[in-house]
Design a protein that fits this description.
globular; about 25% helix; about 375 residues; five-stranded antiparallel β-sheet; eight-stranded mixed β-sheet; alpha/beta
Amino acid sequence: MMKKIISLALISMMTLSACAGSNSEAEVGSTTETTNDGTGSKVYFTKEITPESLVSIYEALGVSAEGKRVAVKISTGESSHTNYLRPEFIKNLVHKLKANIVECNTAYGGSRGSTAAHRRVIAERGFNDIATVDIMDEEGEMNLAVTDTRHIKHDIVGSHLRNYDLMVNLAHFKGHAMGGFGGVLKNQSIGMASSSGKLYIHSAGRSTTRWMSDDQDGFLESMAAAAQAVHNYFKQEGRDIVYINVMNNLSVDCDCDGSPATPQLKDIGILASTDPVALDKACLDLVFSHQSVAGDDASPLIRRIENLHGTHTVEYAEQLGLGSQHYTLIDLDQITCINGAKQETAARYNVYSLDGKRLLSNAPSLEGLQRGTYIINGEKRVVE
């Protein structure tokens, strides 16, 4: 029998630790804390991963594309086996925005190491069938100013970046063999860098011509600095930028891996924000606080992130002033509007006790809860 729940009052979600219970994240030593505390930036969430929900979550951001030259930055994927976002999934959004799809060539060779090879991949993947695809470093590169010069002295991006007024950073959130994880910060730094710019970031500012990867934190901090450079460029008058992470096919490996590991964690949803730091942090929180069970296990991805100090990218980006790790998660699945009235819809439940102990995470129902008062999806409610 479904539990009867009575909403008392909408309140801000408290800052909570992901250490409650004896689940798998505890087993891998996670001490990452959630920062969904009702302060900071708004992060929108839907568990529905469809072309329609992708458009809806963009619209929730309230950023108009009217009269703007729009770019949607994706990864075209290293192989057909890679978990890149498929053309049929992004098509509705791209068409709504009348946007070009944008990418840059890789620095490691592979199937996208040159413009000619990359063009073949784009055609094979079917991206040409839905939009014009602009390889932004096809005709050269440009330097963007960086606020933090600890490692890189500028950010080297594709020269076609200057052709756009609105950037939609549309990232596939997943693990990464060098960065621990890849979300919008990686898609904005490594993803928008030219081939030489990628080497510059990976080497923490030491080379634009060869791979150097012996300074892990320097690499992560360089990604944060480069991401801030792009953000600042698009925050100039007349321009704008928004951020979307799609949490599906959650492999420990990036879309630059032609043979990624099979995902052990089930799809979670789509998240969006105007703050890239808050967005990547919200996605990390969903991974680290996930209640793992057989067949839906977050621990491999958590280990990948922890082993490579992946959360440092988000922490350093916040230190630079790019955004805030504190956010308010707004679950779009919880509300439908019928003649202006809020109605509860079937959704996942995240439940905490009043003293902040996590009881349920992404649960399909409230079965098993005793009668009492809880924080359910950010609201104080009575379960009867």
